[in-house]
């Protein structure tokens, strides 16, 4: 199994266009600190890739990775489709940028599909441009990543009922946010991708404990960070992101897991954006890593 990390930032990216915080200013001064919105490409077969989430950076993300470039036919693309972990805008806005496609396959849970179709009106808007097809991610059964049915299998592990703000009035469902368990039957290896973690349910823990590689929501370093930095009146947990550090934090959980563990979806307030921050040493002491936008994982 081959995974390419396409981005590791939370909504807004790093730098965020309207933000002069130390993280964003640092990234303007040091382009090596820039991060695109969190996303992953998973190889489904020879010259076939699925993107996990479609971010506002999707065009640049495809250009940055030669494996995702079109060819040899003039309009032949290796991007076979998009799998969604949730319906958040930072994970879905890129779908509209794919309107030049001959067809666009989207794999998502029922509530995520409803949000994107009924509230964001993707189908209505894109129908004059391309053919959108949906495949359901059902949390009770394994599906093939590739529409051809071969190769990597996916299980959607329910994480939380956190709805996007634009869908606040939508019905509750345990599959608003899922983690993706990606299993390669040929190598027997498994990766778990969980970029939005508002809770750590048992099913997520079991999947994480079995995985060879775990990539997890690292939006905020600590629970008070959004309040301390003035971006919100709510704590990280109240914003739907378990922090990395502290008693509610994910670091102490990840440190007990046997697989390789990395953080993604970093917010621009996160001290980890500075490569010299002491927080990196704390993570290293626990055997944990921060993913970057060029990371390639072969399992
Ligand atoms: C989140 O990760 O909580 C959302 O993407 C926040 C947002 O709406 O930008
Ligand atoms: Mn987000
Ligand atoms: Zn900022």
UniProtKB/TrEMBL annotation:
Domain of life: Bacteria
Gene3D superfamilies named in the record: Ribonuclease Z/Hydroxyacylglutathione hydrolase-like
Keyword Transport: yes
Transmembrane annotation, as ranges: none
Protein's pathway: Cofactor biosynthesis; pyrroloquinoline quinone biosynthesis
The keyword Repeat is annotated on this UniProt entry: no
Domain Metallo-beta-lactamase: 48-264
Keyword field: PQQ biosynthesis, Transport
Family, as annotated: Belongs to the PqqB family.
Function: May be involved in the transport of PQQ or its precursor to the periplasm.
HAMAP family assigned to the protein according to its UniProt record, in alphabetical order: PQQ_syn_PqqB
Protein name: Coenzyme PQQ synthesis protein B
Taxon lineage: Bacteria, Bacillati, Actinomycetota, Actinomycetes, Kitasatosporales
């Amino acid at each position: 199994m081959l995974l390419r990390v396409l981005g590791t930032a939370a909504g807004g990216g790093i730098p965020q266009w309207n933000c002069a915080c130390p993280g964003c200013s640092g990234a303007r001064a040091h382009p090596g600190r820039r991060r695109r919105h969190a996303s992953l490409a998973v190889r489904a077969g020879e010259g076939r890739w699925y993107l996990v989430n479609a971010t506002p950076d999707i065009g640049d993300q495809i250009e940055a990775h030669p494996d995702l470039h079109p060819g040899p036919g003039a309009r032949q693309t290796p991007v076979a489709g998009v799998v969604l972990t949730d319906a958040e805008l930072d994970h879905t806005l890129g779908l509209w940028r794919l309107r030049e496609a001959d067809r666009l396959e989207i794999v998502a849970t029922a509530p995520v599909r409803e949000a994107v179709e009924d509230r964001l009106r993707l189908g209505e808007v894109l129908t004059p441009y391309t053919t959108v097809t949906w495949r359901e991610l059902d949390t009770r059964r394994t599906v093939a990543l590739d529409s051809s049915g071969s190769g990597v299998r996916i299980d959607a592990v329910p994480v939380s009922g956190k709805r996007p703000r634009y869908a606040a009035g939508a019905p509750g469902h345990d599959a608003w946010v899922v983690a993706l368990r990606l299993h390669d039957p040929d190598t027997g290896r498994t990766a778990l991708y969980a970029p939005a973690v508002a809770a750590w349910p048992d099913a997520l823990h079991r999947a994480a404990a079995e995985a060879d590689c775990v990539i997890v929501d690292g939006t905020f370093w600590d629970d008070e960070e959004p309040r301390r930095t003035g971006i919100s009146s709510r704590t990280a947990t109240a914003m739907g992101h378990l922090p990395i550090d502290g008693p509610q934090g994910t670091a102490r959980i990840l440190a007990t897991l046997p697989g390789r563990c990395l953080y993604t979806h970093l917010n621009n307030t996160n001290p980890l954006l500075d490569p010299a921050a002491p927080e990196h040493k704390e993570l290293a002491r626990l055997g944990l890593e921060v993913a970057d936008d060029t990371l390639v994982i072969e399992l």
